[in-house]
Amino acid sequence: MNLIKVENYEEMSQKAAEIIINKVVNNPKITLGLATGGTPEGTYQHLIENHQKNQTTYQHVKTVNLDEYIGLGATDPNSYRHYMNEHLFNHIDIDFENIHIPNGAATNLQEECRSYDYVIDQLGGVDLQILGIGRNGHIGFNEPQTPFNSKTHIVELAPSTRKANARYFNRFDNVPTHAITMGIASILKSKEILLLVSGEDKAEAMQRLQHGEISESFPASVLKKHNNVTIIADKKAISSCLVSP
Ligand code: PGA
């Protein structure tokens, strides 16, 4: 894994956007794997600013998102579909036909999982997957103990994940208990992975990622098996690595 150390969240966002823009310019038909959460917000803001300033086009770009809450429809302000529209898609020239996000309100969720993997295969796989990391090492919503060979599936969210995401909801009880997520095997099939890590509350996860063993109890550790992973991490996320063994 290649590690790019940056000063802070802003520099991480800038660097990530720079890498993504470069890929899009060089391959206008790229399939991007996208993530939600607090981590990529700054990156998306930079993509929007660049699009407005330099007219970088996303007309032929395809996107595949990692996950979606079960029970939240596309227009629900807390759905990831809504997040993506607000933080990126509504502000660039992407063709909405080219956007793929699991449908958390599907009546047949098992079928939704199967067809999501099919869509990814039909696109020829993800060229560049953007990832965040959970405090418990989850990637997408693949919580600890998710088998490394998992495809898109339904997960019960870990209490710590619901707690971390409760900041977006009025009440903790409103945080969905389940989600659809691309599986670990689906993520690993991406040709290239860009993992963004910022802030001291990610330092423990970062340390485990760098120095821990590869284990299903820490899903992100599987990234060590992939041959093209770049991590952009800021000082606060790396800091505990400097003081601990
Ligand atoms: P965050 O979430 O970016 O909001 O910290 C990351 C994750 O849970 O994967």
Overview of the molecule:
This protein is of the alpha/beta class. The protein has one domain: Rossmann fold. Helices cover 34% and strands 17% of the residues. It contains 8 helices and 10 strands. It has helices spanning 9-26, 41-54, 80-87, 109-122, 159-165, 184-188, 203-211, 235-243; strands spanning 2-6, 31-34, 62-65, 67-69, 99-100, 128-131, 153-156, 178-181, 192-197, 229-234. The strands form 2 sheets. Strands 1-10-9-6-2-3-5 form a 7-stranded parallel beta sheet, sandwiched between helices. Strands 4-8-7 form a 3-stranded antiparallel beta sheet, with helices on one face. Helix 1 packs across helix 2 and helix 7 (203-211) packs across helix 8. The longest helix has 18 residues, at 9-26. The radius of gyration is 17 Å and the shape is globular. 2-phosphoglycolic acid binds at residues 37-39, 132-134, 138.
Overall pLDDT score: 96
How many domain modules? 1
SSE order, one letter for each helix or strand:
EHEHEEHEHEEHEHEHEH
Share in helix: 25-40%
The CATH topology is given as Rossmann fold
Strand order of the largest sheet: 1-10-9-6-2-3-5
Label the overall shape.
globular
Structural class: alpha/beta
Topology:
Layout: E1 2-6, H1 9-26, E2 31-34, H2 41-54, E3 62-65, E4 67-69, H3 80-87, E5 99-100, H4 109-122, E6 128-131, E7 153-156, H5 159-165, E8 178-181, H6 184-188, E9 192-197, H7 203-211, E10 229-234, H8 235-243
Parallel strand pairs: 1-10, 2-3, 2-6, 3-5, 6-9, 9-10
Antiparallel strand pairs: 4-8, 7-8
Helix pairs in contact: 1-2, 7-8
The structure holds 2-phosphoglycolic acid.
2-phosphoglycolic acid (PGA) is lined by residues 37-39, 132-134, 138.
